[in-house]
Amino acid sequence: MAADLYTRYMAASHAWRAHLKRCTTCTAEERCPDGAPLWERFTRLQDAYLTQLRNKRGTS
Fold first, then answer.
1. Residue segments in the chain with a per-residue pLDDT below the cut of 70
2. 40: closest CA among 19, 54, 25, 59?
3. Is 31 in a helix, a strand, or coil?
4. How many angstroms separate the first and last alpha carbons of the chain?
5. pLDDT value at residue 37
6. What is the enclosing helix (H) or strand (E) of 60?
7. Alpha-carbon distance 59 to 35, whole Å?
8. Between vectors from CA 6 to CA 48 and to CA 31, what angle results, nearest 5°?
9. Closest CA to 49 of 15, 10, 22
C-alpha cells in the first residue's frame, strides 16, 4: 500500500507540474477549471502520504 500511495502521489505531482508549465491561468492562489482537480488530487495524496509517514514513525 505504501508504495502504491507514493506512486499515486508522485503521479499527481507530475500531472500538476506538467499542467502548470503550460497553463497561463493557474497561479499559487487560483487554479483554472482544468487545474483545480489536479491540484486537489495532488494535495490530498500529499497529505495522505505525509500522514502515513508520520504514523509509521510515531510522530505527529
1. 1-2, 59-60
2. 19
3. coil
4. 20
5. 97
6. none
7. 32
8. 65
9. 10
- Which contacts of 36-39 are long-range, i.e. CB under 8 A and separated by 24 or more positions? 38/12
Contact between 20 and 35 under an 8 Å Cβ cutoff? The reply is: yes
Encoded amino acid at 28, one letter: A
Q: Which of 51, 42, 36 is nearest to 15 (CA)?
A: 42
Q: Specify the pTM.
A: 0.85
- Residue that the C-alpha cell 487560483 belongs to: 30
Q: What is the pLDDT of residue 1?
A: 55
Nine-digit cell string for 51? 500522514
**30 grid coordinates:** 487560483
Q: How many CA atoms lie within 13 A of 46 on its CB side?
A: 10
